[in-house]
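So, read this over?
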Amino acid sequence: MGFAVLLSIMAMTVIVAVRYLAVSGAFAWLTRRRFPGLYAGLDPQIRREIGWSLASAFLYGAPAGVLAWGWREHGWTLVYTDVHDYPIWWLPASIIVYLVLHDAWFYWTHRLMHRPALFRVAHAVHHASRPPTAWAAMSFHPWEALTGAVVIPALVLAIPIHVAALGIVLAIMTVMGVTNHMGWEIFPGKLAEGRAGDWLITASHHQRHHQQYGCNYGLYFRFWDRLCGTDRGLGSFDRGGRARRGGSGDGGRAGDRGPRTQEHERPDSPLPQP
């Protein structure tokens, strides 16, 4: 049994790592194609981002591997494979429920990570990427990675979800994590700056977080930021390659969709190396 669990952990760690390398690598390639020079001079930072992210892959893979083994051998989770086990409407509904709950968890743990002590100990690693790149999506200190690694395993123990729907949740989580950090807005302006963008988080919204730190904590939706008064609208991407201090503060449809290469705040403590 012990060897089987260990093998499952190793397999899930490899899956998470390969998924990270493939998706981040693809969007990094796209960034270099669309905005040559955007990541110029950032090679040391990118190596650090990859190092922290691969360490995070183990922390994400370990609980997933244990539960994958428990699901196969003992039916521990509520993941199901027969679409007829639950009403068909639950397939899309479960995706929405998972995203809403994950977003709530992320908002509050992310906001907690910005408390001075926790920021210095853990979250400063993520904000050391100035600017963040497509490789920064999983660039976390282990303590922070743990807060992200437990949420989906906890949900599959409590809320039924079809295996395909779970795959969609993980795909959305991965793609949004990468695109929100890569330095430019991938979504059309009508979405990011329109009515949908008033409630959905895109790179323009998360850009403001990396500019000002004390705002825009959400992951998928702007609900918690709006409710708690931490929504500062959209950040702006200057096509000359420098992030502007300004941008919309009105809930925010303003903002250039081009790239940026510099952020404005720095962690106030030395950073450990992965």
Observations:
- Residues 2-228 form one domain.
- The first strand starts at residue 79 and ends at 80.
